[in-house]
Amino acid sequence: MSRPTEPEIVAAITSFRQHIVEHNKQIFAKIIHEAGTAEAPASWPEEVVARARRNFMLHQLCVSRPDALAADDPRRIREPRDVLNRWDDLVAIPELALDGTVVEHDEAQRAILREQYRAGIVAGLKQQDDDTPPFPADFAVLMHHVDRLEGPGWPLWRENGQQVRFWDGLGEGEEAAVQRVWTDLDKLKTKAGEESWEVRAGWECGAGPDAYCFIIYFRDPDSDDKRRRSWAWRYVMRFDVSVWAFENVVELLAWYTTWWEPTLEDADFAGGPFH
Fold it and tell me: Which of 152, 170, 143 is nearest to 208 (CA)?
């Protein structure tokens, strides 16, 4: 599958989001158990213990000022189990990205931001050559369904630098998008790819600890994979000295679904709610 259809892309996005949200729900069930059963210091008053358990959960959601939230915001929890009781409402909050993506609610604004991003990238590509390849069609479909790709994990996990954001997403404006395009293709190949690649265009779409993410138009005439010997847009992650390149967003999402996927052992409880 080199050029997936729109239904195939939508199915891949749905699978990506469903896996991550269900995995996060399992992780939070265990975190909630930790928050609710950890032994409190005997000298602590009951209200202080309750506040510590609640704050521990708020910390997982990166909520530092719960009193500043709107009265009906589902993050205004009173006890740890409220997180699961309000799970669907929490998943619907874009900035939490509990399904691995950000999708804002204002459709009209989303359309404006999509066009700004696309126009900025296209303008940047034309700085190299008027005969640039068209904007990747499968990525255009992705952009209609999500505004950012955060990957597996929950807010605190990402805040602590434990995940690579493959696509930084919409909202930075056309001029900022222009600056994402690499005009020095030799440097792009050195940073993102392999010596055997022939590169015609590309931009940096995201990053993370020791990682850089790109969308690059290239071919590899020395590849054993016949597909890789043809010119095409591909999705690339450079992590330390390793490089992954995917033929389309469907293959990217299938891999990214579990990239640095956290487990309970990965969650740093720092002594639990009473540390």
Answer: 152
